[in-house]
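> example.struct
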C-alpha cells in the first residue's frame, strides 16, 4: 500500500525534542477538521514504506471530537505490548536549527508532533514498527505499520528497456513452487524531474521491496489486500528468511539535461524594468540565504529547506555541481561512505567536515535553485585537548614569530632613521654657527 502523501505542514527546518510527557494541543477557537470523520471500530495498521534517510510524516487521520490533544505511541514489530513507548514533544512546537537534530541517534531525538501529525526526521531502519495515534488515557485512534528500508544497491543506468523489465518481473514471480507462499518484487516509483536546469543534472527513482501473499496478518491489512512491504508486520514470522535476505530498497540514477523555464512577466513590469535600466537577464529570482557555522572533524548534514521525500534535490559547491555518480559510483551503500556525499534522503553529508569545506553551497528543488547556504567550518578543540596538540599550532607559532620579527625590524629602522635625522640636523646647525 503506498505511503500517505505529505501535507504542507512538513516543515523545511527541523525540530529538537526531549522525552517529556507532553503532546500537541489544538487551539479551541479553531474548527475541528476531525469532527465529521469517525475512527474505525477495529484498530488496523496502515502499511507505509519509505526509503531510509527521508523525513516521514504520519498524519493522525481521525480522533474523537472532544479530544483536543494526541499522543503518539511506538513499539517494534516483534515487541510486546509492554514495550510500547509514548513519543512526546518537549514543548510541542519548538522550531529550532537544523544542527540541533543529530545525524543519527535515538528516535526520541528525531521526531516532532505538528497538528496531530508525527514527523520523523532522517528515518532509519531501526525506526520501523507500529505507530499509533491516541490520547494520554491510552485510547487508540489510528495506527501505522511503518517500514523503513535501507538502499542496498545504487545503480546508474539509462531508462529500463523492455527486456530488462521482463527479466525483473520473471525474477519476482519465480520464487518457490508453482503456487508459492509468497512472491517478492520491487515496486519502482516514477522518475523524478531533472534536479537541475541549464546544466547537466540527474534523475532519481526509488524501488521498494514488497511481498505478495495470501497469508498476510489480518491486523495489518484491509479487505482483499494481499500486498505489503517486505519489512511490514503483516509478513508472517515463517517468512523470516525473506526479511533477512530479500528486504531492501534500490536507488537508480540517470543523467539528464533540460532548459530553464523563464517565468512570464506582465508587459507593465517589463516596461518598468526597462525604464529603470534592467534587462530580462538581470531579473533572476532571488533565493533565500542561510548562514551556518560548524566545528571541524564532526559529522555535518545539510538539508534543503522545503524538500519532501519524492522531490528532486541537487547540491552545488560554489559553481561546481555535486553529482551522485561521482561520489557513489561503484560503491556498496553498506560499506564506509565517502567523506562528501548526497545520502538517500537527499541530504548533503560531510563525514566529517573539514575547514576547507567552508564556502557557499546551493541546493536545487524540482529543477530550480531553492536556497544558498554560507558554511563556515571552524577548528574546534575537544575535551582533553590542548592548544599545542592542534596540527596547525606550529604554523601559527611561526606566523606569530615572523610577524613579531617584522614589526621589531620596522621599529628598529624607525629608531635608526630618527637618530640619523637628528644627527644630520645637529651637524647642519653646527656648521651654520
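> example.seq
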Amino acid at each position: 500500500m503506498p505511503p500517505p502523501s505529505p501535507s504542507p505542514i512538513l516543515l523545511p527546518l527541523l525540530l529538537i525534542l526531549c522525552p517529556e510527557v507532553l503532546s500537541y494541543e489544538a487551539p479551541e477557537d479553531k474548527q475541528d477538521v476531525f469532527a465529521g470523520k469517525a475512527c474505525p471500530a477495529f484498530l488496523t495498521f496502515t502499511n507505509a514504506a519509505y526509503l531510509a534517510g527521508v523525513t516521514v510524516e504520519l498524519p493522525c487521520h481521525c480522533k474523537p471530537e472532544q479530544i483536543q490533544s494526541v499522543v503518539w505511541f511506538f513499539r517494534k514489530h516483534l515487541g510486546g505490548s509492554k514495550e510500547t513507548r509514548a513519543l512526546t514533544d518537549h514543548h510541542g512546537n519548538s522550531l529550532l536549527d537544523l544542527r540541533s537534530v543529530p545525524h543519527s541517534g535515538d528516535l526520541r531525538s528525531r521526531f516532532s508532533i505538528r497538528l496531530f501529525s508525527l514527523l520523523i526526521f532522517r528515518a532509519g531502519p531501526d525506526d520501523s514498527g507500529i505507530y499509533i495515534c491516541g490520547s494520554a488515557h491510552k485510547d487508540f485512534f489510528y495506527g501505522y505499520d511503518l517500514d523503513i528500508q535501507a538502499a542496498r544497491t545504487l545503480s546508474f543506468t539509462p531508462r529500463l528497456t523492455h527486456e530488462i523489465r521482463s527479466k525483473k518481473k520473471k525474477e519476482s514471480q519465480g520464487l518457490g513452487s508453482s503456487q508459492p507462499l509468497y512472491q517478492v518484487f520491487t515496486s519502482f516509483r516514477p522518475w523524478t524531474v531533472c534536479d537541475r536546469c541549464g546544466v547537466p543534472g540527474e534523475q532519481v527513482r526509488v524501488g521498494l521491496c514488497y511481498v505478495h501473499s495470501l497469508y498476510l496478518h489480518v491486523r495489518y491489512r484491509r479487505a482483499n489486500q494481499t500486498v505489503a512491504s517486505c519489512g511490514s508486520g503483516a509478513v508472517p514470522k515463517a517468512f523470516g528468511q525473506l526479511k533477512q535476505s530479500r528486504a531492501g530498497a534500490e536507488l537508480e540514477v540517470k543523467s539528464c539535461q533540460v532548459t530553464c523555464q523563464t517565468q512570464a512577466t506582465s508587459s507593465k513590469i517589463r516596461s518598468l524594468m526597462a525604464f529603470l535600466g534592467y534587462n530580462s537577464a538581470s531579473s533572476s529570482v532571488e533565493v533565500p540565504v542561510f548562514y551556518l557555522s560548524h566545528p571541524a572533524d564532526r559529522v555535518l548534514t545539510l538539508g534543503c529547506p522545503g524538500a519532501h521525500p519524492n522531490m528532486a534535490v541537487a547540491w552545488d559547491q560554489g559553481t561546481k555541481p555535486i553529482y551522485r555518480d561521482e561520489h557513489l559510483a561503484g560503491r556498496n551503500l553498506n560499506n564506509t561512505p565517502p567523506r562528501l556525499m548526497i545520502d538517500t534522503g537527499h541530504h548533503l553529508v560531510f563525514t566529517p567536515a573539514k575547514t576547507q569545506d567552508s564556502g557557499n553551497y546551493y541546493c536545487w528543488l524540482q529543477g530550480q535553485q531553492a536556497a544558498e547556504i554560507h558554511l563556515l567550518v571552524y577548528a574546534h578543540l575537544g575535551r582533553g585537548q590542548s592548544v599545542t596538540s592542534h596540527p596547525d599550532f606550529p604554523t601559527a607559532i611561526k606566523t606569530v614569530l615572523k610577524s613579531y620579527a617584522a614589526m621589531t625590524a620596522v621599529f628598529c629602522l624607525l629608531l635608526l632613521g630618527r637618530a640619523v635625522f637628528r644627527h644630520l640636523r645637529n651637524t647642519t646647525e653646527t656648521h651654520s654657527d
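> remarks
Residues 1-27, 90-105, 159-177 have pLDDT under 50 and may be disordered.
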